[in-house]
Design brief:
Strand content: 5-15%
Radius of gyration: 15 Å
Structural class: alpha/beta
Number of domains: 1
Helix content: 40-55%
Shape: globular
Largest sheet: 3 strands, mixed
Strand order of the largest sheet: 3-1-4
Number of helices: 5
């Protein structure tokens, strides 16, 4: 979860409820019914849409909000991942982790959240991050990520 309160901790009990239902990974989604983004300009919306489209259609991961960092993982999920073998850098790790979780058969769910744009500072997302995301999506599609 983001430390700048873009991810409101009020939603944490909803993550726990989904985990209690038997899900292994829960994603706080801005892109499902009841979810929203408040304060983004058109460019930020476009970048987010692009990243999610790349993940969905190139990597083949059918999850509505692949770029959300507001997530809950069961301990067994984290313990099953060899974090020393993560190939991605920057934001692409979110896509790679989900691909690895799906490959291992973990159950993934999404809950709606309201995402608020940060009050100060700016996004650290760069063109290189977007390129890395695209390359990781290609590696996932062609089975190059184990």
């Amino acid at each position: 979860m983001d430390a700048d309160l873009s991810h409101n901790p009020i939603f944490i009990p909803n993550f726990v409820k989904e985990i209690d239902k038997g899900f292994d990974v829960v994603i706080g989604s801005r892109r499902i019914e009841g979810g929203s983004v408040i304060g983004w300009n058109w460019y930020r919306k476009f970048v987010s849409f692009g990243g999610n489209s790349i993940g969905k259609y190139i990597a083949g991961i059918d999850i509505d909000d692949l770029t959300s960092g507001f997530r809950a993982y069961k301990k067994k999920v984290i313990e099953s991942l060899d974090l020393n073998k993560i190939e991605s850098e920057g934001y692409a790790f979110q896509l790679e982790i989900l691909a690895k979780c799906l490959k291992k058969g973990f159950k993934i769910s999404s809950i709606p959240i309201e995402f608020y744009d940060r009050y100060s500072g700016k996004s650290k997302l760069s063109k290189l991050d977007f390129l890395n995301f695209f390359l990781i999506a290609l590696k996932i599609r062609f089975g190059m990520i184990k």
